[in-house]
Specification:
The chain is mostly helical. Helix content is about 70%, strand content about 0%.
């Protein structure tokens, strides 16, 4: 799968870039060893999961009402309206990363939509070709990281470490989709570093578990060859169960990435585990909370089709096609994908 290949690139790149930092010191004749920081990270993650109080609450980001409304519009499929509201946040708070983060995320869903194709009997973003909005998106991602790092230089906080990590994660997400290996690795390394620092400052910052949950999940899903290379390179291992648990934490308690944690968890359960029943259960809140988002409807329909729930799948695909989509390019792609998926449902099954 393409996403898995991208993650393998990220893991390899993480080691390459770590050689040039103070996090890994190794002389020419000394054996390769796992850096001490990696042990600290693993111990910290275990403690955060096992020792956190049962009733612990996520650290409050004090998200303003306009930002909450922006996310509602974005996840309802109204990306253009969401972008306008995000720009208002930027104008009101030009030195805070939140507005730029939200604009980039809304733009991402437009890019995801136009990059979506039906390949391998699965609807997902597969297109490696750069699009007209990629540069704008990357500039916004860089702005998020730069503003957060400037704030960290003055006073380090879990909030700004989270925003810095998200900024680099935004960058890695698009570059990974476009299959730009070295740049994806560099951004991924920085995202992971900031998210770990965020959780060191506050283990209850649930949004940080979205990125780290995906790390744990993907590392444990690597091929046998990639795992051998990871071991000899001294890169920390992952645990799929821990990763899924962390994604569940983010989808339950996250303030900024709750919906995306649920979306990617459902996609991964479908793409890699082929646990379609659990994927359907994970995706169900997406369509119940945001019934006008065609991308969520396409995901739910695709999972239903894999469960052989053809009537439900057809209803989801028709609902996606009926949604009025603001962006012209996205609207055309949704129509195309819906037609192809409905045609596949009605095609004779091969024995």
């Amino acid at each position: 799968m393409f996403a898995l290949e991208c993650f393998a690139i990220y893991v390899t790149g993480a080691w390459v870039f770590s050689r040039n930092t103070s996090l890994r010191r190794n002389t020419k004749n000394s054996p390769v060893r796992i850096p001490i920081l990696h042990f600290r990270v693993l111990l910290f993650l275990a403690a955060a999961v096992l020792l956190a109080p049962a009733g612990a609450q996520a650290w409050q980001l004090n998200i303003p009402p306009d930002a909450i409304e922006e996310m509602r519009l974005m996840y309802s499929g109204k990306m253009d309206q969401a972008i306008l509201l995000a720009r208002k946040l930027e104008a009101d708070h030009p030195e805070h990363p939140l507005g730029y983060l939200l604009e980039a995320d809304a733009l991402w869903w437009k890019i995801y939509c136009t990059s979506a194709e039906r390949k391998y009997n699965t609807v997902d973003a597969w297109n490696h070709v750069r699009g007209p909005e990629d540069d704008t998106y990357l500039a916004l991602a860089d702005k998020v990281a730069q503003l957060a790092e400037a704030a960290i230089a003055k006073s380090d906080t879990a909030e700004m470490e989270l925003y810095a990590g998200m900024g680099y994660a935004l960058r890695a997400r698009l570059l990974g989709l476009r299959y730009e290996k070295r740049s994806t690795a560099r951004a991924g390394v920085e995202a992971r570093r900031h998210l770990l620092l965020c959780l060191e400052l506050d283990p209850n910052m649930a949004d940080a578990y979205t990125g780290l949950g995906l790390y744990n999940y993907y590392v444990d899903t690597l091929s046998a060859i990639a795992k051998v290379l990871r071991f000899f390179m001294g890169i920390p291992g992952g645990n799929k169960g821990v990763g899924l648990h962390q994604l569940e934490m983010a989808s339950a308690k996250g303030e900024l990435s709750q919906t995306e944690a649920r979306f990617y968890m459902a996609k991964n359960l479908r793409n890699y585990d082929r646990d379609y029943a659990r994927a359907a259960q994970t995706a169900a809140p997406l369509t119940s909370e945001f019934p006008e988002n065609p991308l969520f409807l396409l995901l739910a329909g695709d999972i239903a089709a894999k469960l052989s729930h053809n009537d439900e799948a057809a209803a989801r695909f028709r609902a996606a096609a009926a949604v009025p989509v603001q962006d012209h390019a996205c609207a055309g792609q949704v129509q195309k994908l819906s037609r192809e998926a409905l045609a596949a449902l009605s095609a004779p099954q091969k024995n």
